[in-house]
Protein 1
Amino acid sequence: MAAAVEKIFDDTVTDRETRDKTLKWVGTRAPRPDGVDKVTGRAKFGADTYLPNMLHGKVLRSPHAHARIRSIDMSKALALPGVKAAVNRDDFPDHPEGAVQPAGEMVIDYRDMTRNIMAREKALYEGHAVAAVAAVNERVARQALSLIEVDYEILPHVIDVEEAMKPGAPLVREDLITEGVEPAPEEPSNIAKRVEFGHGDLDVGFARADVIIERSFKTQPVHQGYIEPHACLASFSEDGQAELWCSTQGHYVARGHCARLLQMDVSKLRVTCSEIGGGFGGKTVVYLEPVALALSRKACQPVKMVMTREEVFRASGPTSGASMDVRIGATKDGRITAGEAILKFQAGAFAGSPVPAAAMCAFAPYDLENVRTIGFDVLSNRPKVAAYRAPGAPLGEYAVESVVDELAKNLAIDPLEFRLKNAAKEGSDSSYGPKFGPIGCVETLETAQKHDHYLSTLKPGQGRGVASGYWFNIGGQTSATLNLCEDGSVALVVGTPDVGGSRASLAMMAAESLGIELDKVRPLIGDTSALGYNMLTGGSRVTFAGGIAVHGAAVDMINQLRERAAATWDVPIDDVEWHGGQAVAVNGYKDQEGPMGMLDIAKDMAKSGGPIVGRCSTNAQGAGPSFGCHIVDVDVDKETGKVSVARYTVIQDAGKAVHPSYVEGQYQGGAVQGIGWALNEEYIYDKNGKVENAGFLDYRVPVCSDVPMIDTVIVEVPNPTHPYGVRGVGETPLVPPLAAISNAVENALDIRFTELPMSPPRVLAAIESAG
Amino acid sequence: MAKKHITTTINGDPTEFLCDTEQTLLDVLRDELRLTGSKEGCASGDCGACSVTLDGRLVCACLVLAAEIEGHEVTTIEGMAVGDQLHPLQQKFLDHAALQCGVCTPGFLVAAKALLDRNANPTETEVRYWLAGNLCRCTGYDKIVRAVLDTAAVMRG
C-alpha cells in the first residue's frame, strides 16, 4: 500500500516535466461546474435565500465619527406594530483583553470584534452599528430605527494617520499603550503597535552608496468593492440550535466568530455559505451575521439582513491608507546597498492594520545585505480595516518600487535590468527573515524583458512603467472528501467558498489524481456540518491547500479501491496498483477478468466492505511565494489631468496553472483593481469625519470603458511542496500596479507622484505647478 | 396604504402581482416573484447588476417602480435561455471564463444581449462603452469583452 502512495507523490514531485506531459486535466481550460447556474441566474448568492416566517433586520448606525454612547432607548421601536426584536450592546457579552485568534492573514481580537459589530462604550466611526431591529418587513424595520433614541456625547475625532500619531490627538481608545516599543510608553496613544523587520547594517550600506534617494508617500484607503453587499439569513430555534446562510469567504471561520460572540457551542451553529459575489478579503470577518443571529434568537423567527451599498462603504472594509517614508541607496553600477522603509498604516477604529505584512513584503523582490522596515499600526475614527488582496503589500511595494524606479533612472540603468541586478532568488535571505526556496522573481523579470510589450515603441506622449510585486501565499487547515457513488461517479465535497473557479480547479485535480474523467467528478461546497474544519478562502490558499487535500483524499480513495480489488482477486494489496483510473494486478499476479475500474468496484461496494470514502484533513504547509512583474503604458491628457491606461501586461509565477483561464482572470482582475487604486479610488471625508462618497457614483471603481485588454503571461516555477506544483495566484496581481502606473506617469510627464490616487485634479495640479 | 395590483408580462409569461407603490421593479422581481437572478449591488443605478429589459429597452430594475410596468413587457436573465438551450452569449461567457464570482454576470448578459439586439457588429470600443454601466470587480473586463465580441461574430455567422 505504502509503495503506491509514494509512487503517486514521486510522480508529482520529481520528474515534473515528464509528468506534466501526461496530465490530462490539470492545465486545461475545462468547463466550470458552477458555470451554467451563474449564467442563468440560478446561482444563489447571499441575499437570494428566503425562509417562511422570515423577518427583515436593519442596523441603526452612528451619524458621528466619534461619540460616547450615554444611553440607548429602544422602547418606542419595540412598541411599533410589526417589530419583533431589537438588540444593542447589552445583547452581546464582552470579551477580555487579549482574546486573540489568528484568522487567515489578519488577527481577530474578540474584544474588538464584539465592539465592531455593535458599539459599546463609544461609536468609533460614522456608520458604526449602534442597535438593530427585526420586523415583518423592511419598511417597518426602517421606521423602527427612526424610533430608537440614542444619547450621544460627541467627541473630537481624528481621520488622518499622521494627525492620529501626534501627541494630543483625540484618542480612539483611551487606554491604548503601544506594543512593540521598549520600554513601553507611559502615555496612551493611537499607535497600537510598532513592528520591525530586516537584517544587516543600514549605516554601513548607505555609506557604500553612490546615490541615495529618499521619498515620502501617502495613499488613501480604498474599498474592496465587491459587487454583492454583505447579506445573511439567520434562524435560531427555541432549543438553542441555529442555522446561518451567508455570503462569506469562510463559513467555518464565520461559525467560530458568531459562536464566540454569542457564547454558544460551535457545534450548535450550522453555517452554509452562499455563492459569494466577490470578497477580495472583505468577507473574511463578520458584521451582520452575529446581529442577525442575536435578533433571531430573541424573535424565534428567521431574520434576513442585507447591507445597502452605502452601509458597505461606511461600515465594512476598507483597506488602510498609509503614510510611508522610503530611503534606498545604490552603487553606480546598480547594486542596492541599503533600503529602509517606515510605514504608518491606518487600522481604522481597532488595531490590526496589515502593516506587518506590508513591512515584510516591501523589499521582498530584492536580495539585500542591509534592509530595515518599520511599521506602525495606527487607530483613527474610520471603519476597522479588513483584508484586501495581499493585505498591505500593494502599499509598501508602491513606495519601494517608486524609489527603485527613480534610482534606475538616476543611474541610467534600464528599470528591469536594475531589478534583475538585485533580484531575490533561491537561497536569498528575504528582507523579513526566512531564506527563499525556489521562486520565480528572476523568471518574471526576464520574461518581461523579452515581452513584445516591453520591446514595443511608445507613442508620442505616452509613458511606460514597470514594477515587481510579492506575496507570501498561505496554506492552512483544509478538509476534503471524495464519496464514491454506486455508479462509479464521485462526489467531491470541499469546505472553501468558491470566489473564482476553485470548484473547477479542485475537481480537475481530483480527476487527475484518480485518473478518471472530469465529468465523473461533481464538486460541491459543503456546509459546516459536512466536513472537518476549513480555514477561509483567502491568502491565495484554496488551489494550493485545497489541491493538497483533494489529492490526499484521492490517494486515500485509491488505497481503498486497491484493497477491494485485491480482496476480490485474492492477491496481496501490494501487488495491486492503480493506473488510469483502474486497479491492475502486478508482479505476476493476474487480475481476473481484466482490470477493475471505478464502476466495477462501486457496484459491488456493499458486498466488498461498504461505502468507499476518500478523506483528507490537513494543515497544509509549504505555500509557494509568488512574484509578479507588470508593464503598463499610459497616456496623460494634459488638459484635464486624466491618466488612461493604453496597454497593460501582467507576468506572474503561478507555480502551475491548474486552470489557466481562471489564473489569467486573477491576473487581469487584480491589475484592474490596481488601476482603480492608482488612479481614482479614495475615501473622501468631510470636516466632521463623515464619508462623502459612499456610493459607486462617487467612489469610482474602473468601468469597462476605462481599461484596455489586460495581457497575461503565466510563468511556471513549480512549488515543490504541492502535488501539482501550485503556488497561490489570487493576491500578487494587486501588488505591482500602483507603482507600475505611477512609474509610467512619471515616464510620461517627468513628474514623480508620491500620492495616490493620481486622479485628474491631482495630476492637473501637478502639471500646472511644473509649468 | 393599499397595495397596487399590476398586470404585466415577464419573460413572456402573463404575470400579476400586488406591490407597495414605493417598491421598485427589482424589489418585486426578487422578493415577490423570487426571480433572484437580478441582483441588487447598489440600488442607485450605478452597478448594473439588476439590468433587465423593459419593452426591449435596457434599464436598471432598481430605478423602475414596480407599478410602472403595468401593461409592459419585462425580460430578465431567467428569460434568456430557451429550454435547455443557452443563449450564445451565455455559452460564450462560459467558454471564455468571463465570470469569476458571477454576481454581476446576469446584468452583463442582459446588457450585452441588448447591445447585440441593436448592433450585430460592435467594435471593442462600442462594447466597452455599452457595458460601462455594469460593474465587475473580479475580471478586469477583458474576458467579458472578448466573450461579447466572439458571440457577435458567431451570431453573424
Protein 2
Amino acid sequence: MSERSEQIQNLLVAGAKRLLAHATESRSLDSDSLVPRIKSSVDKYLLKDDENASDQSIAEFIDELKADDLCLIVACERGDESAWSDLVERFTPTVRSAARSASSNEDGAQDLAQSIWAELYGLRVRADGKPASKLAYYSGRGSLAGWLRAVVAQLAIDQHRKQSRTVQTEDDADFDRLARGGGDGKELFLATAALNPEEAISDKLAGAEMQSALARSIKELSDEDRLLVKLYYFDGLRLREAGSVLGVHEATASRRLTRIHGELRERVESTLITDLGWTKTETEGAFAQVALHLEADLEPLLAAGGAVSGAKVKARK
Amino acid sequence: MKQTENKQMDLLLGDLARRTGVRSVAPEDHSAMHLDADELNSYAEQALPAAARARYTSHLAECASCRKIVSELTSASGANVREDSVSQNTSAGFRQKFGALLSPSLLRYAVPALALFAFIAVGLVALRQQLQPDFVAQNQPAASRDATIETKPADSPAEPGNFAAAIEERRSSESQTRAGKNIETKAKTGEKSETSNTATPTDSVTVTSDKDASPGKAAGVVASPSYASEPAAPPPPKPQTTHTEARTEVAARRKEEADKRDEQAREQEGARARTDDNQNQIALPQAGRGALAGQSQERLRKLEAKRASDAGAKTNDDEADTRTVSGRRFRRQGGVWIDTAYQSSTATTTLARGSEQFRALVADEPGIRAIAAQLPGEVVVVWKGRAYRIR
C-alpha cells in the first residue's frame, strides 16, 4: 500500500470513528463497517476530480456525510431487522409521496412504492450471489429521504420508458407533432409570413437560419448557462426554480439570463454575418421580423397547446 | 434598445424550445449514461464538491431526463431549506431584532414621524392650557352651572380650584386667628340654628362647616355668604297674621315663635355680616376673578333668595293646608277640608250648609257649627264615630 493510500485509509478510519461518534444511533456498527462506504463516496465525489485532495478537504468531506442515514443504510445492508423496521417506518411516507408525484394515479403510485421497497431489500440476486440492493449506492452525501425520492423518480422513468416502447397514445403523437411544427421547424414562420410569396420564402429561410444559429450558440454557452437556458426555456421552470437547481437566487438567475440573451444575440449575429454573409442591418431586421411573427403567433400556439394538453390529461384519466 | 433585444431573444429561445424541447424531454434509453440516484440527489441538495458538481452540470445541461428529476428533487429539498431558514429567522436573537428596528431604512421614516408626533402633543398641551381659564370663566356664570349649584349645593364641584381654593389658602395664611373666631362664631350660630324650626339657617351653617373642614367642598362657601346676606329668610309675616286672625286658639303660640325667630335672625345677621366682611377682604385682591365672583355671588344670592322664599311659601302652604279647629286637625285635599281622623270606611252623611238637616245637626252638636264656621267650603268632619260631609 502506497503512502498516499495508507494516509487516505487512516483518514477514512478516523472519519468513520467521528461519524459514529456524531451519529444519534450507531446501530452497533464499528468503523470498519463504515470505511468501505465512506471510501466509495470519497472516491466518487472528491478524488475522482482531484486525486491530490488535501487531508483537510478529505476530512471535511467525511464530516459532512449524513452519519445517521449512513449508519441506518449500512445496518440494513448488514441485515439488521430493527434497522429495516426503522427505515420502513420512517420513510414510507416519503416513498409514497414521491410515488404519487411520479404516477398518474393512486394504483400506479402504490405499485411503484412496493417496487421501491423490493428494490431496496434486494430481491434480485447479483452474479456473485449477493442480493442486488440499491442500498449499496447510497453514499451519505445527500439526505436519505432525497435519495429515496430520486430512486422512486428513476424507477418511474424506467417503467414509463418500458410502457412507451409498446404504446404511444394518439394524443402524445399529436402533441409531439404540434410541438415540433411538423418536423422541419419552418411552418411557424410560413403560416404568419407576409402574403407576398417571395417575402414568405425569405422569412422562412431567415427564420430557419436564425434557429440553426441559435441552437449552435446555445451549445457554445458554458455548462451552467446552458443548464439555465434549458431549465427555463426547455423545461418550463420558473426563474426561482431554475435558480434553486443552480444554487443561486432568483435575482441572480434573472441577471444571468439577461447576460445570456446578450451573449446569444452576439453569437447568432456573428454566425449570420460571418458564416452566411448577412449584413448587420439585415441581421437586426431579421431579428425584429422573426420576433414580430413569433409574438403575433404566440397566442394561437399557446391556445392550441392548451387544447392538446387538455386532451392528453383526459386521455390519461 | 437592450430590452427590445432581450425580448426578441426571449421569443426566439421560447420558439426553439417549443420545437425541440419535447423531443429532448422524451425518455431516452441510455440509462448507463444517466446520473444515479445518489448523484442526482447530491446535486439537488447542493451537497457536492465544486468539481463534481461541475461535472454533473455538464450532463444535466444535455440530459432532460436527469434534469427533470433534479428539478423535482430541488423543489422538494428547497422546501426544507426554506423551512430551515424560517426557523433560523425565528430563533434570531433579540440583538438582531433590535438592530433591525434601529436600521437606517426604518429610522429614516420613524424619526420625522416621532418629531411630528411630539410637536403635535406639545401644541395640544399648550392649547389646552390656554383654553382652560376661558372655559372656567365662560361656564361659571352659565345657567346650567347655577342650576347645578341650586340643586346640589354641597356636592357640586363647580369652580373648586379657583377662587374658592384661593380663599381657603389665603384664609389659612393671613388670618388664622380671625378664621378661628369665625369658625367659632359659625359653630355657635349652628348650635343656635339647630334649635330653630326653620330649615334655611341650618343649611347655611352646615355648608360653612363643611367648607371649613375640607377645601374640596369650597363651592359651599359661595353659597353661604349670599345666603347669609339675604335678610328675608326668617319670618313669613302675612300668613301668620292671617292665621292669627283666623285661629284665635294658636295665636299666642305663634306670637312666641315669631319673637324667637326675630331674635335668631338678629343674631345670625350679626354673624353673617362678619363673614361677609371677612370674605370681602379676601375677594378684593383677586382683580380678574373678583368681578366674576361678584356676579356669581349676586346670582347665587338671588337663587338662594328664591329658594328661601319658595321654602317659606311652602311652609305657609303646609300651614294653610292643615288647620286645627275645636281640637281637631283638618287637611286640605282638593279644596276639601278633611278631618285627619276620617277614613274611607267610615259611614258618611252628606249635608248642605243652611239645609234643614244641617241646622238640626248643629243644633245638637255646637262643635260642628264652630268647625263649619271656621273652615270655608266643603268639610268632612268625624264626629262621634260618624263622618259628615258638609257642602
